[in-house]
Specification:
Order of helices and strands: EHEEEEHEHHHEEEEEHEEHEHHEHEEHEH
Structural class: alpha+beta
Largest sheet: 8 strands, antiparallel
Strand content: 25-35%
CATH class of the largest domain: Alpha Beta
Oligomer: single chain
Number of domains: 2
Number of helices: 12
Distance between the termini: 22 Å
CATH topology of the largest domain: Uridine Diphospho-n-acetylenolpyruvylglucosamine Reductase, domain 3
Helix content: 25-40%
Number of strands: 18
CATH architecture of the largest domain: 2-Layer Sandwich
Shape: globular
Length: 384
Amino acid sequence: MPRAERPGTPEACAELLRACADAGRTVRVRGGGTKSDLGAQARTDVVLETGGLDGIVDHVPEDLTVTIRGGMTFAALRDALASHGQFLPLDPPHVARGATVGGIIAANSNGFGRYRYGSVRDLLLGIRAALPDGTIARAGGRVVKNVAGYDLNKLFVGSFGTLGVVVEATFKILPLPPVARAASATFASAEGVFGAADALVRTSLRPTAVVVERSGPGPWRLLVAAAGERAPVERAMTELGRIAAAHAGTAEAIADPESALGPLRELLDRSTGGAVLRAALPLATQAAFAEAAVRADPDARLVADAASGVVQVHLPDESGMRSAADALLASAHVLGGSARMERTANPDLGVAGAPEPGGAFLGRRLKDAFDPRGILEPARSIGR
């Protein structure tokens, strides 16, 4: 049984990592535990829980920046900023289950708003990270105009705790938008719905969400959300109606945007049985991939961030899961993208024979530089 440790300060976290490295004890980093299914799994000697690293360190409303501890939950941060009429323009999944700021950075967890506001990498200004040698590294800063030196804080985005523990982070924030609206349009085919999404993305409008959804056999749906001043928001809704009609679709308003988008953002949590696959694709190939998903499993549930090319597919048919998953992993590669298994009851699914990711040798060199004894997340580390 791994021993749980819950350091209360960045310095205590760094000292714990140093002690583990000296003793050769492996460490798994756990925030809210919402992304434990991602990546390879292996038992470690210690589970480092970041919940003790909580709270806002610095908030300067006039500068539109906020610095928080890595173990603070995103929900708590959202509520704190809202009391000042501001928000961090990320909409990651698993917020209701306790996703933490450090976990969101480590998993590079983005939502549908990345097209309008940018990703974790774009909004992150700086971090402090505890390293296995007992030091605390600082990268970036607490101001928006911060371009001196190497942008090392980006190394920790998507690192899954393999390089160090994010104990503090600074983000750009924005005022809460005065108006938010959403609408949906229904189409008979993947070609029609992705054609409409592409046409909308090509306009000068910047919606906060452009999402394609299909729930088993049935029509395809395009959901579009917009936020900001009333005039551009109304223009986005009007443009959706025009584009939908041009692609043989029908549009209608959505009274509560979050009630419609929230379940789609949580596809991974809401999918039971089978397997969930995530693909990152060129925008022009999304329709072809979606059609391949339906051929692989007619009951497939698909959610696509159509403005970013990120597609999640739930394959519920366990009897044909292996062949369907293999077909989609190959399809993503042929279309110029990439894909991975997000969750499956079969740990070997999509892993056997998978090619080493591009730049893996650089990943190994970084791992050796930051964690030479290999104690952090050994199962998730490249080449370990």
